[in-house]
């Protein structure tokens, strides 16, 4: 057992202010803080309160000033458009300061919100950094969400400006974004003043007079603008994530704590320093993209690969390996589902043959539980260290990990290793009592959370407290269940709420149910996540129909799938749905989703004493069996 990890962790918990003050040296500040941790408004904590900085300055300008201007900052690799080019720090500075200059010229100021609905192109990173430069708060919405989801986020964030593109490119073809944006803007109550649209050659967008401007036209004559100093505690971005209701939660990230924590994590966890090449194969619409495609690598002066493509099919399961070799990637980060996809298409690793991966030191996996099979397969094929690590949109950076840049510990398959310095993780029962070693309970983190974690939910402090802080006063509720072994290794096993994880994408079953109930034929709906060999989980819906509905099963299912795709988006991957006569419920009317999930996945379950009608479990089991789940003989 590596004591260095534990010693560093103990220092961070016993002397957090000294620990994080030292880490803050990696960041350039315009003026230093009044207090490292301001706890006067606990449970709302403020890191580096009174300090002033600019995140864009730290991610871009200072590297040019330090002589890294000619180093590639962003390496764009787009197999779906057959295009690859590098953007140096100097070029990045020019692009970002001009875009920021245009934004400023149309009245976007510090504190204004800006929504970014874009595909995986370098301009998306320019947009984020341009916001940071002028102190505007960006909110990136993942391109796989439908117009309705975009409208909900626009109404919550109330942006002055939206940046978007004419299209994204998926293996299925060109996905026009502009019609989705137009529909969202029509639907939203909040009126957006300006849109900047990146026209891509694959699809031309129609611009609306007096509202939309073409990206190139906008930046052509815009003045460069310098960075503004913001408070450490000012929000840098809002990132919406699924909660248990249909209304997404707007996770708020500050500037100072975020910059300090990400810079620390790049070195200590990912072993990446200035000049190294790093690749997180995710999407900027998710937290992984925010932290480890854009901000983390750029804050430390590394080169970040920005990849527009999939692990397989664009064009083959060797695409990741060739990209790593070509751009000398030292640490690579993806989701286990991506590795499962490659394993499915290339089980014997034929596409690895002849690819020189000597540059690669570590493969990091997160976003969902990494099953030991996937871990072993990757280890064997790559002959590299494969590191599972655990975190969430809310925390913004890893909570449990192996510190590959500081003091690696032995890998235990199925575990994301140990608590990262700054995080004090406990496993508790429903009463808040710590459970024994190897016993499963709710995973909680003692307050205060370290720098870089969420400070609140956008314009909803009450929901922040209700969702995360009220169940166990003094602790943050992660929403995950798991256990720790005798060496303190953590094992994350499942969610304790109605969130499901589909191909590393976090989705709310409550939202699916809301959408299904919009259908005229549906009286009631229950959605559960069932096991899937590729995506980890996929959503499965059971609906009870209103009386007198005259639709064939096929017609109904097709309509429901189309509805979910239209309302939530293709990312929902909703392909399993069936009508049932009745749903299993308790006598107080609570739908027994957990029991249904266990039946579907062939897990043991107890029939709750409070069940209203035990026969409903047979109805559900028979339906699930017909759908290819729930072994009828269990
Ligand atoms: N814009 C528009 N549509 C998008 C999109 C985007 N940015 N991202 C995904 N979609 C669409 C896909 O085209 C697909 O549509 P389809 O139903 O018409 O085929 C649908 O959303 C589901 O996409 P996806 O989840 O990517 O599933 P897939 O079956 O196409 O691919 C994997 C499966 C495993 C290859 C893929 O999920 C993957 O690469 N996962 C990596 C996970 C990841 O990066 N997670 C982020 C957290 S680390
Ligand atoms: P997101 O906020 O989309 O990043 O999703 C976070 C959730 O994904 C966590 O709360 C976990 O449920 C799950 N998750 C992420 N990484 C891991 C991991 N390494 N092991 C187990 N679950 C994980």
From TrEMBL:
Residues 7-59 form the Acetyl-coenzyme A synthetase N-terminal domain. Residues 63-447 form the AMP-dependent synthetase/ligase domain. NCBIfam families: PRK00174.1. Belongs to the ATP-dependent AMP-binding enzyme family. It comes from the Bacteria. It holds the Pfam family AMP-binding. One of its GO terms (cellular component) is intracellular organelle lumen. This is Propionyl-CoA synthetase. GO terms for molecular function: propionate-CoA ligase activity. Residues 513-590 form the AMP-binding enzyme C-terminal domain. InterPro entries: ACAS_N, AMP-bd_C, AMP-bd_C_sf, AMP-binding_CS, AMP-dep_synth/lig_dom, ANL_N_sf.
């Amino acid at each position: 057992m590596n004591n260095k990890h534990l010693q560093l962790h103990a220092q961070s918990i016993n002397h957090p202010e000294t620990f994080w003050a030292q880490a803050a040296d990696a960041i350039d500040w315009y003026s230093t803080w009044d207090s490292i941790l301001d706890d006067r408004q606990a449970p709302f904590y403020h890191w580096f309160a009174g300090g002033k900085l600019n995140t864009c300055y730290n991610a871009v300008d200072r590297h040019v000033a330090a002589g890294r201007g000619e180093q590639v900052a962003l390496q764009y690799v787009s197999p779906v458009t057959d295009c690859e080019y590098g953007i140096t720090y100097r070029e990045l500075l020019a692009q970002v300061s001009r875009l920021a200059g245009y934004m400023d010229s149309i009245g976007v100021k510090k504190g204004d919100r800006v929504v970014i609905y874009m595909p995986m192109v370098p301009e998306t990173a320019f947009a984020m950094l341009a916001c940071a430069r002028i102190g505007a708060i960006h909110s990136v919405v993942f391109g796989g969400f439908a117009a309705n989801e975009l409208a909900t986020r626009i109404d919550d964030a109330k942006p002055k400006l939206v940046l978007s593109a004419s299209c994204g490119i998926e293996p299925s073809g060109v996905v026009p974004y502009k019609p989705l944006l137009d529909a969202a803007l029509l639907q939203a109550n909040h009126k957006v003043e300006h849109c900047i649209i990146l026209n891509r050659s694959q699809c031309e967008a129609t611009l609306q007079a007096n509202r939309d401007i073409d990206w190139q036209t906008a930046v052509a004559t815009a003045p460069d603008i310098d960075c503004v100093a913001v408070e450490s505690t000012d929000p840098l971005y809002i990132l919406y994530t699924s909660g248990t209701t249909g209304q997404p939660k707007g996770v708020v990230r500050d500037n100072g704590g975020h910059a300090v924590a990400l810079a620390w994590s790049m070195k200590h966890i990912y072993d990446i320093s200035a000049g190294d090449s790093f690749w997180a194969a995710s999407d900027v619409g998710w937290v992984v993209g925010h932290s480890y495609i854009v901000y983390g690598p750029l804050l430390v002066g590394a080169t970040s690969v920005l990849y527009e493509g999939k692990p397989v099919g664009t064009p083959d399961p060797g695409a990741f390996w060739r990209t790593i070799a070509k751009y000398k990637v030292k640490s690579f980060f993806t989701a286990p589902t991506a590795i499962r996809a490659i394993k499915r298409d290339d089980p014997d690793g034929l596409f690895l043959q002849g690819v020189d991966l000597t540059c690669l030191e570590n493969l990091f996996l997160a976003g969902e539980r990494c099953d030991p099979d996937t871990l072993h397969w990757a280890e064997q094929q790559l002959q590299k260290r494969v590191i599972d690590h655990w975190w969430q949109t809310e925390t913004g950076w890893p909570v449990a990990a192996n510190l590959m840049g500081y003091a690696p510990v032995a890998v235990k398959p199925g575990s994301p290793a140990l608590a990262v310095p700054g995080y004090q993780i406990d496993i508790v029962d429903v009463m808040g009592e710590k459970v024994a070693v190897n016993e499963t309970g709710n995973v909680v983190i003692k307050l205060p959370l370290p720098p870089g974690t969420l400070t609140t939910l956008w314009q909803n402090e009450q929901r922040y407290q209700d969702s995360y802080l009220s169940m166990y006063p003094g602790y943050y509720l992660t929403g995950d269940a798991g256990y720790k072994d005798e060496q303190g290794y953590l094992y994350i096993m499942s969610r304790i709420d109605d969130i499901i994880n589909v191909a590393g994408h976090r989705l709310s079953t409550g939202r699916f149910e809301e959408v299904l109930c919009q259908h005229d034929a549906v009286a009631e709906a229950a959605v559960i996540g069932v096991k899937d060999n590729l995506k980890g989980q996929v959503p499965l819906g059971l609906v009870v129909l209103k009386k007198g509905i005259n639709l064939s099963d096929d017609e109904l299912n097709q309509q429901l799938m189309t509805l979910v795709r239209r309302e939530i988006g293709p990312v929902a991957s909703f392909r399993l749905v069936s009508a049932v006569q009745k749903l299993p419920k308790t006598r107080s009317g609570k739908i027994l989703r957990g029991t249904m999930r266990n039946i579907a996945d062939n897990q043991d379950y107890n029939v709750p004493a409070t069940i209203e009608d035990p026969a409903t479990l047979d109805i559900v089991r028979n339906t699930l069996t017909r759908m290819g789940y729930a072994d009828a003989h269990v």
